[in-house]
User: Fold these one by one.
Assistant:
Number 1:
Amino acid sequence: MISLLLNLFSNFAIITSFLGVGLGLFDFIADKFSFPDDPKGRFISACITFLPPGIASFFFPNGFITAIGFAGLVVIFGFYIAPFFMIKKVRSTMPEGIYKVSGGNSLLLFFLLSSLLVGAVKF
């Protein structure tokens, strides 16, 4: 029963993320290529938006899960590694910075090493 519920949950998570991104991409493609807002233009936008990932999902059923895993590496860079270097730069240019966080450089180093560890585990 738990396995069924976890499978159902993961399927709904995939469907909702796929549709959410797809709808945003649908509008972007329609605007970018200036497709008209009529049934034919919307059909062309829908084909460009949903056909390539639909075909990829058919041939690689677990590809979405793999892609989400690699997208997590981008999150590691954007939320942990890049801010580490930004904080180091601000601290080097303004030693008496505007803000103070307890932990100092050791806390920064901990965040950098832990994010690198998570990235290494992914690979």
Number 2:
Amino acid sequence: MSIIYKICDAAIWDEAVAGGRFRGAGIDLEDGYIHFSTASQVEETAQRHFRNRPDLVLIAVETDGLAIMWEPSRGGDLFPHLYTDLPVTSAVSVAPLTCDDNGVPRPEGGYPAA
């Protein structure tokens, strides 16, 4: 079992759950694929792209059965991308994020260990 992570607005995720599929948000829709992070990448993703944003969730996604593409991004690191909609049934957990004193959104108990 391999888990990857997605940070997005809670309202967008709620809409996806209602429809059964997550089509992406913001930059995903612009780029034509859904951006994910690994456990070792997700905290930096939160710091770089989601600082001071309220009402976010961290979605843990099981990759089995998904056509994940591993492509270079920041610093040449390989990031997981999905070029199709994500079935919401692939989510194994959804946790609310709260901004810390530096504006970085964090789940209760911290980010997963890499």
Number 3:
Amino acid sequence: MSFVIEQARYTCALGAQQTVLAIPHAHPVVHAGPGCSGKVHGFTTSGAGHQGEGYAGGAHISSTNTYEQEVVFGGEKKLRATIDGALKVMRGDLFVVLTGCTADIVGDDTISIAAEFADAGKPVVGVETAGFKGNNYFGHELVVNAIIEQFVGDAEPNLRKGLVNVFSSVPYQDPFWRGDLENIKSLLESIGLEVNILFGYGSAGVSEWKDIPNAQFNLLLSPWVGLSTVKLLEQKYGTPYLHYPVLPVGAQESSAFLRAVGVFAGISEITVEKVIQKEESRFYQYLISMADFLTEYRNNLPSELYVVGDSLYGIGVGSFLVNEVGYILKGVYVIDAPSETQQSFVTEAAASRVDTLRDLLFFESDGGLIQRDIKEKLGKSRKALFVGSSWEKNLAVNTNNFYAFLSLPLPETVVVNQSYAGYTGGLNLLEEIYSNVFKSKTTTSRTQFILDEAG
């Protein structure tokens, strides 16, 4: 059944071109109509904290720009020419051919054409990512799995103890993916693991992908996105996987995460606990340093919590702010459209962190319906914190409440390497929330006195 949603929070499967761009020196080749790639770029870069084009993004992406002629007579000839041109003009270690709706509707055999180049020794992968197949969370999995199947291939594993492949954030769709992956890699390295992070500036690029079969284990840090990938790797290379369904935000979850990884990897408990002790000591010292602020402005601070984001971030941020900061949870709105089976993973992970979260977890991609539900719960409250997108910021301003940025769209802020993952990420989130107190509401007369004195 077809329907229209208001305030969409994701793009179509072709948005997986950004997954390709997140791999250092990888280049997408788009077989779609003019404008498809550009619209995806606009939403997931400018609309996601102005993250930039990357190595070969934006106007640099090769595209067939198919018109009526290709729809009527087929676009395979034009696709071959486009791939050939990209290989000659663009410097890349990996080229991934992605399709839009028209190419898949008319039946162009994109995967076979990509295979022709691969058989000739070119680093080319083909994957069908027509927009009607699903959103870019789904497209992300398609692309990752295609690279493993067609590029990494049937390699014979050479097991290296301590090596872990990490599958977590969806690049660009998670506006904080670069900082998140850096923090996650740093946490894992702190307990002695070697990490293939696969995406972002902390990745070595294609060499890490070729190294995937040699890992001791795979780590899926996500409720459902990437589950098909780690199962594929288990089947293909016999690599076991640890499924940790919650983004570790703050001290409690980060420590639990390190302990779970340590046990699975066979790392000494003494080693893991030494790292945890150091990180928790640092975290809580910083937290204590906020006591003066929290006491001084307690009458101005929010206490009710609404979170709008994908399942990875919604649970991670929601549980941190409830369990460690003391917010009263009113609702977590999950916007990544998991299937009914996948929803059960999300619900189970949420309920295991916050008892009340099972009844306050809503799977909804329609921003209009989300805001309607929030308004009904909100009433006349002026103590609410909305953690979400620019649309939630507008709601906060219009209702004289508070906001912090978390999810797309985010066209009015700049994200460089900000992260809410890990111990440091939890502190970053608190800085964001409480700095916005001064932007969102009128503060106390004491605050005005300080400002007047400073002026």
